[in-house]
Design brief:
Order of helices and strands: HHHHHHHHH
Radius of gyration: 18 Å
Helix content: over 70%
Number of strands: 0
Structural class: mainly alpha
Strand content: under 5%
Length: about 220
Amino acid sequence: MNAARTWHAATAALAVGGLTLQLVLVVIGNPVLAEVEPPGLGMRLYRFAAYFTVESNALVAFAALTLVRNPQRDGRAWRVLRLAGVVAITVTALVHFVLLRPLLDLEGWDYVADKVLHMGVPALAILGWVCFGPRPRVSSATVWVALALPLGWTVWTLAFGQVDGWYPYPFLDPDAEGWPHVAVALAGVTTLFVALSLAARWWDRRPAGVADPPT
């Protein structure tokens, strides 16, 4: 129990620290991703929050903080947010490593924030979930409800992008890549989300049998 609390506390501290550092860099006008001329502060803050990386790290931080208080935390809504965070942070790390890392040329604190949010936090979050659970917590219903979160983010991102012409990731930009390319990218990422969610359900139920109903 103490080991689990320590691990979750370290995960929460790294996630909150990484998010805070990135927010400070955004506020002072450092480039985010590949932007050469950052917009005004209000738009910079919106774009900071619009990155899936930020949202996945926030989900991880929330779950980790609750697990510091109670390593056996449960509840229907909590199960959804916990699974969504674990899967989302895994996708964040994979997409960054495969698609985005070659596009970045960061230095100093920008480099530090990038590595914390895309490598450090995912490593701690995934290992913490594998080693400490809690489990069983993932049912079929939990999987499909959790998938609604990235779906909602995608719909909002594409819709808002049509309004202001900005997309948080290059592979989602239909103006630059074309809708067929975006559709293929979304199909691939969606498949990854579903596969990871189902794998998480399998792993969650494997050691301890069928999940108990949340209390």
